[in-house]
Amino acid sequence: MQSFCAAIKSKPVKRYKAYLFILCLFAPLLNQAQDSTFAGSRITRIKDFRNYICYKANPLSLIAGTINVQREATISPMHSTQLGCYFFTGYVLGRDFGIKGLGLTTSYRIYLKSIFENGPYIEPCLRYQYFWANVSNAELDVHVAGGGLVVGRHWLIKKKWVIEIFMGPMYNFSFLDVKVGGLPQNLANPLDDTRGPFDGYWFRSGICLGKLF
């Protein structure tokens, strides 16, 4: 050790090399200390996490005569599951269209940041819908099944109030069931159009307001 210190004092060029050598030895320790500090803050955030329930409603759906409510349950700071349902009253802007419907949507949400931060999310979803109507002497039932991908943005206000906007494409398969006088009609002929009016691509969008519990 004494010879090493003497060499540093006697030769300035070797002195810098020695400093560089010592710095290289301790650099991993410094980096490890920074990583442990960051990990500590991250662990603290995860320890503070608990499962939250968020109840939400889409106020814009009322314009289309629809009552739409949703329940989101978190399973981690960045993942949650959501179950939504709606009832279509058949009245749009005071006009009765003579048709009513129910819908059930299930989805898996992935936050690109976390539920505690304002930011975007992506949400693959599946949806089932059922509509019914009476037209003259005929009873019409329409079954719709589909799926899609929603992209949205999430805002958390005062750690309990939630505002969200979302939009995205969906693809539906619909089937039409017709009864006349209470008797089902034979629509098995390939020339008959048994497909419902909701087949194909659709676009889903909205705004949700909710509260975190």
Q: How would the blueprint of this fold be written?
A:
Blueprint: H1 2-10, H2 12-48, E1 53-57, E2 66-76, E3 79-88, E4 91-92, E5 95-96, E6 99-111, E7 119-135, E8 138-157, E9 161-180, E10 183-184, E11 200-212
Antiparallel strand pairs: 1-2, 1-11, 2-3, 3-6, 4-5, 6-7, 7-8, 8-9, 9-10, 9-11
Describe this protein's structure:
The strands form two sheets. Strands 1-2-3-6-7-8-9-11 form an eight-stranded antiparallel barrel. Strands 4-5 form a two-stranded antiparallel sheet. It is elongated. The protein folds into two domains: 2-48; 53-212, Porin (Beta Barrel). The protein has helices at 2-10, 12-48, and strands spanning 53-57, 66-76, 79-88, 91-92, 95-96, 99-111, 119-135, 138-157, 161-180, 183-184, 200-212. α1 (2-10) crosses α2. It contains two helices and eleven strands. β7 (119-135) and β8 form a beta hairpin.
The H-and-E topology, N to C, reads as HHEEEEEEEEEEE
**From the 3D coordinates, which CATH architecture of the largest domain would you assign?**
Beta Barrel
Regions with pLDDT < 50 over 5+ consecutive residues?
A: 1-14, 21-46, 188-192
Oligomer status? single chain
Give the count of structural domains: 2
Number of alpha- plus pi-helical segments? 2
CATH-defined topology of the largest domain: Porin
General shape: elongated
Radius of gyration: 30 Å
Look at the structure and give the mean pLDDT. 79
| Helix percentage | 10-25%
Strand order in space, largest sheet: 1-2-3-6-7-8-9-11
The CATH C-level name of the largest domain is Mainly Beta
Secondary structure: number of strands: 11
Give the N-terminus to C-terminus distance in angstroms. 64 Å
Q: Quick one: biggest sheet? A: 8 strands, antiparallel, barrel
| Strand proportion | over 45%
